[in-house]
Amino acid sequence: MSALRRCLRSPRVVAGALLVLAVALAAVLAPWIAPHDPQEQDLLNTLLPPAWAAGGEAAYPLGTDQLGRCILSRLLFGARIALYVAVLAATGAMLLGTTLALLAGTLGGRTDMLVCRAIDVWMAFPPVILALILLVGLGAGVHKVILAIIVVDWTRFCRIIRSEVLVVVRRDYVPAARLLGFGRMRVLWREVLPAVLPLVITVMALEMGIAVVVEAIMSFVGLSVEPDVPAWGVMIADARQSMFLMPWGVVFPVLGIFVAVLGFNLLGDGLRRALDNRLVLSREVVRAPGA
Amino acid sequence: MPPVLEADGLAVSLRAGRRRFDVLRDISFSLAAGEVLGLVGESGAGKSMLGRVVAGNLPEGFAVSAGTLRFDGQDLARLGAAARRALLGDRIAFIPQEPLTALNPLRTVAQHFAEHLARLGVPKQEREARMLAALADMRLPDPREIARRYPFQLSGGQCQRVLIALAFVSNPALVVADEPTTALDVSTQARIVELIRGMQATHRTALLFITHDLRLAGHVCDRIMVLHAGDAVEHGPAAAVLGAPRHPYARSLRAALPPLDGPRLRLAALPDQMPGIGAFGSLPGCRFAPRCPVRDPACAAAPPALAEVAPRHFVRAAGACLAGPDVAAGCAPLADPPPAAGAPLLSLRGLAKTYPGRRPLFGAPTPGVAAVLPLDLDLHPGEFVGVVGESGSGKSTLARLVMGLETPSAGRILLDGRDVTGDLRARLGTAQMVFQDPQSALNPRRSVLSLVTQALESPLFRGAAPDRAARARELLRETGLPEEVLTRYPPQLSGGQKQRVNIARALCVTPRLLVADEIVSGLDVSVQAQILNLLLDLRARSGIALLFISHDLAVVRTLCDRVLVMHRGAVVEQGATAEVFGAPRHPYTRALLAAVPPEDAARAWPPPAA
Fold first, then answer.
1. Beta bridge partners of B550
2. pTM, entire model
């Protein structure tokens, strides 16, 4: 059975992919589907509840914040920042971590030792503190947040992928390829990388979820986007003061984060199960186990 | 005397959706106290299923669908969990296949015994004495010291002795031993088998001995049941089943065994291999019929009845099968190769490998390990040279040194007169390697077409064959594979097909020397015979030379003209196969040969310990 068909049969993958797709559509189509400009203030209609609650207005389906800005519009535009950071940060961390993992796993010896010790030292720093220090040093900004996530989280990829590379390079098809005259880099590219790719994809999906949360935290403390850019963390921070008066302002961005992270996690976990050869083989019953 | 274990028409089935596959059909036997019944078959024959029925440990989806398996009057197939637990480990004990993984690495041997003896209700003050007595029965040198150790501090043979001691400590009525020596070296196997038999005889235990090795069963068991695809095809006294099997499958299994004495023969190989569970649905009759040399259309329709050909010797075969021409008739004697002449193809001069010790940042440095001590070897074109030895003898390291996958610490490797010692690529057009385990040696993400012609992608051999698909078809023909496997992937192939693809890949660049590391050790005997014949055919066709690494002396004897015996990194004996096997000089070679169960069931085996 092909990998794609296995993925489509997995309820986790389908559910995760649908959630992620929904967030992605919201982000891409935000300028067209948002009812208002996300920065437009309507000071006559501040702190409106959602349209279905008592006192709600049909013009503001999810209500307004304390400056009278449309929560739905801000939510849709906020998805853009969340996904932007998720995709770029996860890709960057993946590229850095996987490259080092492949080199460490195949070259072994001194290279492996150096990479592993670097990971050890890196992981000894509390990640949030490390990110904060970086952002204080680099200054605030969404690209700095992306850079901070890459710099902090490459270790996650590197550790997991390296151990898988170690397993793969011990399979005989790797020396067999060497004996057919292929150079080390070619073997790495054609034989080792495809074998670890399912794991890379899986970790990447999980990392995107993490990046969404980290970005939200950073914009919450004001280290990410400019204050005039709608982001979920900024929305939570803004709604905090009026939280007891109008809890919806906090609920909706939190829901946005929840849906995005749940989608990425389901996708990652489902992909892990669908793409992992060992699990797949053990579930194909007809080869009798131990018969 | 009532039997200890009695199967009557037992059937085990797998339910997959609405379909049902019988993985064991109509199995009947009775096993008395003090008797040993051998269940012999190739992988997939269903022999382990029976052990699993006893343990109540059938894999998911499998269930007993007919018949009974009575132990002491109770039907094990329908026993409740609590009643079964009370029996297992006490009246029924097991000896597992993988001794190293069967013990919990977090507990010492003494803790394993303490737990087991406590469950058996042995008072605390008696436990240690019972344990030491049980370990002493295993002829372990220092029982107290062994008891203090953790499983990973013991060798495989020691672990297996501990497990045997644990199995017999409750003085069980029945012991199920599932391939208890498969993971061990031959000389350890002989000792372990001797221990199991000794314990079984003194305790008058009924022993169910599951193995793939017909010769071993012939010497260990009183009676043997040969299983094929879930059918008991033959069931009778061990000496008769090993010495003169009657069923066509049992006969071909016997003929596929490489002999250790007598003339060297080309082995009789059956076509294909045993049908898998998926094929059972289309085989309502005798499941051996598609491969049977004497098949009868009637057999394919319904399974033949069990016929008693001699007292208590049953064969599931129609008269035609019993009388038909023998499969072994096609075994031609192997011609002795012409004496090696001319320049050697491969020369090893003082080749040695020492793994350096580690100098860790903390702690004491460890000393180096000499894996291969300096050795010389000349291998001529068309010559088959075998390297035998037990695990850890350095034989695999030798193969990797020859191919340049390891760097020698001393010595030179000359290929065709050229020094290729430090140059991996320089040897690749002339020498190629076939790896041991095709499961691991074939990238599961490549199709057979891309695997067998993988070499043509490399800069060294690009352009060697302009048409990849045509070359792939040639290679499939050469290795006896059907053309339709071209588009398949390794997981879709059988074990024998995978090994052929593995060989075809090495042949792609038309090497003159193949280095083969244990390439038949994971295969069933009937498939092993096919692969050995394939190698012999390759030599007849293209005069290829072979460096064949194996732990199996009988295989090496059949295939190779010359043999090197390695022991702890050193070549202790070498010479023409006939001489080394006929009149071994070194005591280690003699011990190795004596450890192999002989074909003649009348000869006493295992030999008394030296």
1. B388
2. 0.86
pLDDT higher than 70, residue A289: no
A286·B277 Cβ contact <8 A: yes
Q: What mean pLDDT comes out for the span A81-96? A: 95
- For A175, which of B277, B405, B460 is closest by C-beta distance? B405
Mean pLDDT of chain B, nearest integer: 89
Identify from B458, B492, B505 which residue to disrupt to test chain A contact, counting A C-beta atoms within 10 A and taking the largest count. B458
Amino acid at A112: D
What is the end-to-end Cα distance of chain A in Å, rounded?
A: 23
| DSSP assigned state of B333 | B
Strands B410-415, B346-355: pairing is antiparallel
DSSP-assigned letter for residue B486: G
Q: Identify from A180, A280, A287 which residue to disrupt to test chain B contact, counting B C-beta atoms within 10 A and taking the largest count.
A: A180
User: What is the DSSP-derived secondary structure letter of residue B317?
Assistant: -
- Report which of B238, B198, B209, B234 is spatially closest to residue B222, judged by C-alpha positions: B238
Phi/psi at B415 (5° precision): -120, 120
Contacts of B364 (CB under 8 A, 6+ apart): none
Query: CB B202: neighbour CB atoms within 10 A?
Result: 11
Residue B496 makes CB contacts below 8 A (sequence gap 6+) with B273, B523, B524, B527, B530, B531
Q: What are phi and psi of B479, to 5 degrees?
A: -100, 10
Number of A/B CB contacts below 8 angstroms equals: 88
Backbone angles phi, psi at B60, to 5 degrees: -55, 135
Please report which confidence band the pLDDT of residue B610 belongs to, taking 50, 70 and 90 as the band edges: very low
> Which candidate from B278, B435, B458 shows the least CB-CB separation from A182?
B458
The answer to whether residues B440 and B493 touch, using CB atoms and an 8 Å cutoff, is no
Residue A290 has pLDDT above 50, yes or no: no
Task: Mention every residue, 6+ apart, whose C-beta is less than 8 A from residue B282.
Answer: none
The residue type at A200 = V
Tokens at residue A253, please? 């961005």
pLDDT in tens, B348-369: 999 999 988 777 777 777 778 8
Tokens of B455: 């070499």
The confidence score (pLDDT) of residue B571 equals 94
Count the neighbouring beta carbons within 10 Å of the beta carbon of residue B124.
9
Three-state DSSP class for B338?
A: coil
